Amino acid sequence: MDELAQHFKNLENDETLKKIDEAYNRGWNDAMNNPEIKKALERMKPKKVIREVKTDIFGEYIKNRCPTCRKLIYGKYVCEHKGCGQALDWS
To answer: Can you give the pTM of this predicted structure?
Structure first.
């Protein structure tokens, strides 16, 4: 076994690295169970824009709304309203 292969074999058996890995995984799992982090991750997934067709005395027009906060949006890829930040899918 060459020196580099032995070095990596030693790393696999290193208790400190195992503890670091376990702490990282535990932290990741704790983070994924945090409702605020889940909410933020959900808002990173683009959702279809809600298109409302309206009619007035001048004819038809379209209002685009954020699927999360329902506020009007204007051609952006992320809702810019305070506290929202939903990624938007215009397709």
So the answer is: 0.60
Report residue 1 CA to chain centroid gap: 44
**What is the β-pairing status of strands 47-48 and 88-89?**
parallel
pLDDT higher than threshold 60 for residue 1:
no
Give the span between the Cα atoms of 76 and 78, in whole angstroms: 6
DSSP category for residue 82: T
* Cα 72–Cα 40–Cα 51 angle in degrees, nearest 5: 25
Go through 51-82 and write b for each residue having 16 or more CB atoms within 10 A of its CB, e for each that does not. Answer: eeeeeeeeeeeeeeebebeeeebeeeeebeee
